[in-house]
Specification:
mainly alpha, 9 helices, 4 strands, HNH78-like, TIGR02646 family protein
Length: 242
């Protein structure tokens, strides 16, 4: 997971939010008024600011696992970090608040095992979370700084609640042949370690230069980039402490 820096909200979305608030609509009813072409514009803007990566698992979006014939699924979803409420609120409409919106993948809906009574075991991201509150927030650097990784690609946190967000509410360590999140993260870690092993010169300076490149990578970003940024920061910190 990486820090997402929000773009300015589309003016038409802000107008729609204001109208929903003036009408006293609930988050659910207000969000129902977000239709195309504005909805597509919002979705594309979210993907652009995220480097076309899922806000939670860092998979590439649009999700290529979703095919044209999957009419009930979308290759990218608009997620609300603070879940929408069905209760009317004339002062806040979180469903149309651009600061509350993220772009996410299909949540592994296409996994062969994701069916029947065991389906939820294989779901990830917002499909697993549904409306459960989260402490981890891709817009809040402080919560992301608690994240670390194991050499096999497992994502963890020093914060107990955030660790539960990762493992239970978002299921980001789901490890099956259909999901492969750990395998994909490990591949990125192996790649950056191999690249640095083959570079000449000062190791610490090479890490600093690589970190600058990865943190400033343009859209589209490398999937699962978060583990590379974390590892580089860790190496720099350890070398500075020596």
């Amino acid at each position: 997971m990486i820090l997402i820096k929000k773009f300015p909200a589309p003016s038409d979305l802000e107008t729609l939010k204001k109208e929903a608030e003036e009408q006293g609509l609930s988050d659910k009813d207000g969000y129902a008024k977000l239709r195309n072409p504005l909805k597509t514009q919002v979705r594309n803007l979210l993907m652009q600011e995220q480097g076309h990566l899922c806000a939670y698992c860092m998979r590439r979006i649009p999700d290529i696992r979703i095919l044209e014939e999957d009419v009930d699924l979308s290759d990218v979803y608009i997620e609300h970090w603070q879940a929408r409420s069905a209760v009317g609120d004339t002062t806040e409409n979180k469903g149309l608040d651009y600061r509350n919106m993220l772009a996410v993948c299909s949540g592994n809906e296409k996994a062969p095992e994701a069916n029947g009574k065991h389906k939820r075991r294989f779901l990830t991201c917002d499909k697993k979370r549904e409306n459960a509150p989260l402490k981890i927030n891709p817009l809040d650097e402080e919560t992301l700084e608690t994240i670390y990784y194991l050499t096999d690609g497992t994502m963890k946190s020093t914060d107990v609640v955030i660790d539960e967000d990762i493992n239970i509410r978002l299921n980001l360590n789901c490890d099956t042949d259909a999901v492969t999140l750990l395998k994909n993260r490990k591949a990125v870690l192996d790649m950056i370690q191999e690249d640095l092993a083959n570079q000449e010169g000062d190791f610490q300076q090479n890490c600093i230069e690589q970190l600058h490149i990865w943190e400033n990578e343009a859209d589209p970003k490398t999937p699962y980039i978060g583990i590379a940024i974390w590892w580089l920061k860790k190496q720099i910190h350890l070398l500075n402490a020596d």
